[in-house]
Write a structure and sequence with these properties.
By secondary structure, this protein is mainly α. 43% of the residues lie in helices and 7% in strands. It has 15 helices and 9 strands. The chain is globular, with a radius of gyration of 22 Å. It starts with a helix and ends with a helix.
């Protein structure tokens, strides 16, 4: 009850991903906090079939496996159908921060990862079939771009360690103009990048179509909020998402969200920021693990929140934002080592007053600010 009252008092109306859903059952002045759970469709497949942790290890589900759709439908029926009549359910996140290419979890492209799978895996066959299609059936032409020496497509199918001809920076570190110039200078590099994006287009289309169908079959009453992008992925991925989701959701830990919000806006869908935060150096926490900008003190933290949200709300496509997170992380670190001042309260349940005052001020004016967006 105390936490729910606090959140309403700070101007919030929704619980973000990972929230304790017991809070959504508490009424404050005849109101409830709407909630938005993560269904973990792709994550469930990876855990069951590949015995891995999708988020932690950056393992992408083999969406070309017929069992992917089966597992998604089963998970959605079990998780979503019982809540399909809940008036305070905002919608469903299908997954969280899936890997769409080189990122903090590894330098491989998804195409390279799928080409390195065993021959009997559906995703491997899909990747090889696409390469055969793109190179007109000529493995020699494929070899010329990929710097390989395969004698046949069957040999590529049997190979389980494919090295890319180039290794690119993490997607969120790439500069679009630098990438463009590099591809102009080296046509083979451009061909490799085009191969990767063509594969992403097929993979993303299947992921978003299958997960959307599973969600809508299990619960036709609530929105599909997408998979919470950790960074702006290659454009074919966002284009595929825009075909199927009701809202494109993404996490954005930049000091200024306008560029990221603008890039997603180009796809013409409502947008939701799933996570953002600022960490203060006067909190007593190490802040050595975790994403997001650091500021000197709680006063600067409050000012950063106010500036960020006000800037984001001036984009008409934005329909919501979720702060990460309610309580600070432990000084010694959580399960993955994160040890940051993300909370609106500390571990002793004491609120950061300067921050929460700023939250109340901005949140209460959110609709007015958004109404004036261009």
């Amino acid at each position: 009850m105390v936490t729910a009252r606090r959140l309403f008092g700070w101007g919030f109306n929704t619980l973000g991903a990972w929230s304790d859903e017991a809070l959504a059952a508490i009424t404050v002045s005849n109101q409830y906090l709407a909630y938005a759970p993560v269904v973990n469709l792709g994550t469930s497949y990876v855990a069951r079939k590949q015995k891995e942790q999708a988020w932690l290890h950056g393992v992408f589900p083999d969406v070309f496996d017929s069992e992917f759709a089966t597992i998604c439908r089963q998970r959605a029926r079990e998780f979503c159908t019982p809540r399909s009549g809940d008036l305070w359910l905002l919608g469903w996140f299908t997954d969280n921060e899936l890997r769409w290419g080189p990122d903090w979890r590894g330098s491989d492209e998804l195409l390279t990862m799928f080409l390195s799978l065993p021959a009997n895996v559906p995703g491997k066959k899909a990747a090889v079939d696409l390469m055969r299609e793109r190179y007109g059936g000529s493995v020699t032409n494929f070899n010329a771009v990929w710097k390989t020496t395969f004698a046949s497509w069957n040999e590529l199918l049997r190979a389980t360690s494919i090295r890319p001809p180039i290794v690119r920076s993490a997607l969120y570190q790439q500069n679009q103009e630098v990438e463009r110039r590099a591809n102009e200078v080296d046509p083979k590099r451009a061909a490799f990048v085009a191969d990767c994006e063509a594969f992403l287009a097929r993979l993303a289309d299947r992921y978003f179509r299958v997960t959307s169908e599973a969600i809508k079959a299990a619960d036709p009453n609530h929105m599909n909020l997408g998979c919470r992008f950790a960074y702006f992925p290659p454009e074919p991925v966002v284009a595929a998402a825009a075909k199927y989701v009701d809202v494109i959701s993404f996490n954005c830990y930049r000091p200024d969200p306008r560029e990221v919000v603008s890039r997603y806006s180009a796809f013409g869908k409502p947008l939701m920021i799933g996570e953002f935060s600022f960490r203060a150096e006067d909190s007593g926490l190490p802040n050595s693990r975790g994403a997001g900008p650091k500021v000197k003190n709680q006063e600067e933290r409050a000012a950063a929140f106010k500036k960020y949200v006000t800037q984001a709300l001036r984009n008409p496509n934005l329909v919501g934002y979720h702060w990460f997170e309610y309580c600070d992380e432990p000084n010694a670190g959580r399960f993955d080592g994160e040890n940051s001042n993300y909370g609106v309260v500390n571990v002793r349940d004491e609120g950061y007053t300067k921050l929460t005052r700023a939250m109340n001020e901005v949140n209460s004016q959110a609709e007015v600010i958004h109404k004036g967006s261009e």
